Amino acid sequence: MNEWVYAVIIIPFVSAAILVVLPGYWLTARLNVLASFLTLIAGLNLMRIEAFSNSYLIIDNLNIVFVVLNTLVGVTTAWYSASYIGHEIETGRITPASVRFYHAMYQAMMGAMNVALLANNIGLLWVGLELATLITVIMVGIYRTPEAIEAAWKYFILGGVGISLAFFGTILTYLAGQQALGEGLPAMSWSLLHANAGKLDVPLLNLAFVFLLIGYGTKVGLAPLHAWLPDAHSEGPTPISAVLSGLLLNVALYALLRYKMLIAANPLALQPGPILVVMGLVSLIFAAFMLYQRRDIKRLFAYSSIEHMGLITFAFGMGGPLANFAGLLHMTMHSLTKSAIFYAVGHVAQAKGTQRIADIRGLSVSHPGLAVALGLGVLAISGLPPFGVFMSEFLILTSTFAREPWLALLTAFGLLLALGALLLRLQGMLFGEPNEPTHTVKASPVPVVVHLILILIAGLYLPGALVTWFQRAAELLG
Amino acid sequence: MNEAYDVSHFLAGLMLVVSFALIYQDRLLAVLRTFAIQAIVLALAVAWQALVQDRPNLFITAGLALGLKGIVIPLALHRMIFRLGIHRDVEQVVGVGLTMLFGLALTALSLMLVLKATASAPAVAREVLAIALAIILLGFLMMITRRNAVTQIIGFMSIENGLILGATGARGMPLVVEISVAFSVLIALFVFAVFVFRIRERFDTVDVEVLERVRGDRT
To answer: Which terminus of chain A has a lower count of CB atoms within 10 Å, N or C?
Structure first.
């Protein structure tokens, strides 16, 4: 049954190779959706496979959740990007030549992320994440405006620094396992390292975790390592902002979680939980304050992503079955909601011809459909019922309150701050007199509607199968 | 075994010295030549490890370091520097003395950190690793103190040199990783090259500070 595992990786890379030689926007955009859809089917089939691992790949309850989420958002973003990029070609912001690369790179990026998610070899995990990062760097700079180049440059330099530190941490992890597992591949295989965690060299493991935390933490966008994130989100094409927020941050967090499981399995090594709790909480509160000063709509939601990644890291740092379950649920809800918001924001920016919040007014009059999508998305991400984000935030807060009431208070404070900022900005954009200029936008409503329905269902009723699925993943996280 | 230890220690130390040289060079062409020397020393160090550890596939990594980073990339950047007409440029943001002091402090830090944490690891691995970390940190220092896109590229590649040194010092680390590192350097070059050309296109300069002034009122 292992064919599906390889299919998840091979389909995107083969499609990338095909898309790069095909001309024409119409055809490549549709093939892009088709390829993403096939990957989703392969990803869903992973759920039927029993857990297994070899020297390079691993399947367990944890990474199946990530793969399915990754491939699902991959499909809707490909769908969305077809209409978004169509508009960008009409307005001349993107040349047809770069569109061809855009679709090929989109598939290559999805493939690289799937490699990272399925990797059992810690070197392969690093390669997947690095490849995905480099591809997004190119995509962020695709508009070639001075701002886009600056953002891509900053992203590259900071991402490069993070990647190098993570690689150094990978070498140290290998050395920590080398004495117990011998030279060669076994000491780089995550499942073997995890099974023999008690025999690993403790000082080396501690040092390795510090490097990995800073390295992969940069990619997760944890404060104070987040500086690249707002620029990269605001200057690239909006579909890329959606995958950055919805997927790439998750993949980096997944890498961090794998190492957290490794180090937590060794009782003598340092405790990763409190470190993650502090970093998560700092990111949450810092980003919540920063939300008030944003003037660019995409930067606003980029900071909101920092806030939510902080909350998710906080939940995983607390640990335990309930907090881990809440963390996984919140990660899923955040990915779906945030990408839905970016879908709406992309079309809003096209309709108004600007990303300045002050220049976007009265959307409810001029573009009712977009206003409803944006409004519902923002209400959902602020954690208001009846959407799924409310449920996961509620779970995180209650499980924390039972154990550390003070931490729960701080978390609630950060969440309320963010709620205020987002509602304040939303009101200004939706209501009031519509201002000029307004353009008509041909947008496909399907991606936003699919995501909003999913988070609405999750908020009202979580199917039992989903709950057991997440519970099993949460148990693995320890 | 003693000889193996001495030579690998010597070559790693030589790379560290070259890293310091990279920090105080203020002319672009000199920086480029110094980087080429570092890459060649890296190639020697990797080749020596291949010999000592009896792992012939490490020679591939050594060959890549020599061919790509010792010859091809410096030549390409050399041509680019002349084409852009910036070969006489001098740049230094912080004073040489201060930067060197910082560099010394970073080296001391990495030696103390790694030697303390790796007490049970084999001697060659731990010392090479300590020096590799020092080279990486010096690379960061170089990227921070420089304002020119080309010198930032070189700083980044010297970080990669340190990483490869560390990876080959760890006995028996599988080839998968070395290939991937070489691969990533290629991609890094591609990305960087694209940027340098685009930066030139847009601003008629490769000074990164100009990029930062573009920010305007976006917050």
So the answer is: N
